[in-house]
Design brief:
The chain is an alpha+beta fold and 144 residues long. Helices cover 43% and strands 14% of the residues. A four-stranded mixed β-sheet has the order 1-2-4-3, with helices on both faces. Helix 3 links the parallel strand 3 and strand 4. InterPro entries: Ribosomal_Su5_D2-typ_SF, Ribsml_uS5_D2-typ_fold_subgr, RNase_P, RNase_P_CS.
C-alpha cells in the first residue's frame, strides 16, 4: 500500500494555500482595480501586485448561492480548484485573479473546463505583461 504523503503524491496543502486569495480586502482590491473580463464559462478579474509582496500569482474563487445548493457550489469549487492547480504554472507574474464560474461548469467535461482555465490564464499573463511594460515605460528607472 502506498502512502499518500509521499513526495511523488504532488504538492501539499500548505503549498497550495500560498496561491490562494483568502482575505476579503484582497478580493475587494482586485474588484476595484480591474474591469470584468469574460470567457465562455466564467467571468474573471485580475490585478498586478506591486511592492515587496510575494512574487507568486494568487487565485480566488467566488461561487454565490445563485449557483445552487451547497453540494453544487462545493462541487464547482472543487473542480475549479483542480483546474487552477493544473494551470497555475501559466501565470508567472505577481498577479491576483478572481474567477466567477458560471453554473454550466458543474456539467462541463473536466478537460473543457481545464482548457478554459488555461485560456483565461494565458490571456491574463499576456495582458499583465503588456500592462507591466506600459508601467515600466511610464516610470523608467533613474540611474544616479
Amino acid at each position: 500500500m502506498t502512502s499518500i504523503s509521499s513526495p511523488a503524491a504532488g504538492t501539499s496543502s500548505t503549498d497550495a494555500r500560498a496561491f490562494r486569495l483568502r482575505k476579503h480586502a484582497d478580493y475587494q482590491r482586485v474588484y476595484k482595480a480591474s474591469r470584468k473580463q469574460f470567457s465562455k464559462q466564467m467571468t474573471y478579474f485580475f490585478m498586478l501586485r506591486e511592492g515587496a509582496e510575494s512574487l507568486t500569482p494568487r487565485v480566488g474563487l467566488t461561487v454565490g448561492k445563485v449557483m445552487g445548493k451547497a453540494v453544487d457550489r462545493n462541487r464547482i469549487k472543487r473542480r475549479m480548484r483542480e483546474a487552477v492547480r493544473k494551470n497555475l504554472s501559466l501565470l508567472t507574474l505577481p498577479v491576483d485573479v478572481v474567477l466567477h464560474p458560471r453554473r454550466s461548469v458543474i456539467e462541463l467535461e473536466f478537460r473543457v473546463l481545464d482548457r478554459e482555465v488555461a485560456l483565461v490564464f494565458r490571456a491574463i499573463q499576456k495582458a499583465g505583461e503588456t500592462q507591466q511594460k506600459f508601467t515600466d515605460n511610464r516610470h523608467p528607472a533613474t540611474d544616479n
